[in-house]
Write the structure tokens for this entry.
Amino acid sequence: MFLHTAPALSKQQSADMKISQKGLAIPERPNQSHRERDDTYRDVMLERGCWRLIRCKDGIQWIIQNRAPGCLRSNGWRGISFHLHRESLIRDWRRLSGWDGLELMALPEVCRREAK
């Protein structure tokens, strides 16, 4: 399988990104949503093309989501693969998305709810 590496970001793209608490670059999302299917979902960890990784609304698992290419409606994301452990997450991210997922090494070994 051919794995993609993330393309270099332009200055504008870099300006539109922030670093999450886990060290992953994620786009700024104004008016964040609590609905996991929304484009503006509040806990997106990584997004590459029609694939993204989120932490579930309860903070207990990671979810690899997919959206059909060209789908512009805001409710287009659907859960494909669900993970508690980073190792299986990275394996499925690579298999499903074709991206190398090196950024995911910054995640903890096990998904745990963060203290508030």
About this structure: The two ends are 40 Å apart (CA to CA).
